[in-house]
Predict the 3D structure of the following.
Amino acid sequence: MQDSGTLFIVATPIGNLGDLSPRAQQTLREVVAICAEDTRRSGQLLAHFGIATPLLALHEHNEEAIAQKIVARLQAGESLALVSDAGTPLVSDPGFRLVRAARAAGVKVSPLPGPSALVAALSVAGLPSDRFAFEGFLPAKPSARRERLQALAAEPRTLIFYESSHRIAEALADMVQTFGDDRPAVLARELTKLFETVLDGNLAQLQARVEADGDQRKGEFVVLVQGAGEDADAKVIEGRRLYAKLKDHLPPSTAAKLAADLSGAPRKALYGAD
C-alpha cells in the first residue's frame, strides 16, 4: 500500500519578499503542486524565486467542490502545498475545508510557519499581548458591524481586526462610538511594505488622523484595540451595550435601570448614553 503524501501549509510574505523562508522555498519547489488562493499573485511570487511548480486554484468559491479531489491525490502519495495570497493560510483565508478533509482522511498536514499580519502587528503595538482575541474582518454592513462591536465592548483581551481601505474610516468611527473616545488603540498599515506605518493613540485620535490624511486610508490594515478594564470600565461598557439594546423596546429610564441591574454599572453612567 502506497504511503500518503503530505499537505504542507506554507506561510508566504505579507509584503517583503525576503520573508519567504529557505524551508518554504525548498518545499514549494519539491511538492507536486501548490494550491493557491490567487494563482496569478502566487505565480508572481514563485517566479521571483525561480520556482516552476504547477499551481492549482483553491479559493472560497471552489474549495468545498475540489477538496476531496485534492485529498485523493494526497492519498495516492503526492505531496502538495497550500498558500494564501499573503501570510499564513487559513487566517481569514480559505483552506479550512481542505485541511479538515485531509485530516479526516488520515493525511499528514504539516505547517511551515512564517509571516502573519496579526502577529506582526501585535508584536509592535505596545498593547497587552499575553491574551488577545482575533476577530478577522468586521461585517461590511454598518448595522452588522456595530452589533459585532457592541458584543465585544466588555472584552478584556486586546482585540485585533483586519480592515480594508474602503471601510477603515467607517470602522474606526464605529469603534469610537462603541468603545469610547479614549480607548488605547494602534493602526498598523501596509506592514513590511514601502509605506508601512504604525500609528498609536486613542481611538478618537486615530480616527481623526485617518480622516485628515488620505494616505492613511490606503492599503491593508490591522486595527488593535486595548481590552476593556476588568472591573468598573467593563461594567460601564457592558451596561451601555445593554442599554443600547433595551432602549429600542423600553422607556429610556426603564432601560437604564434594567441595564444597570444586569451589568452592575452605575445607572447615571447609562441613562442618556447613545
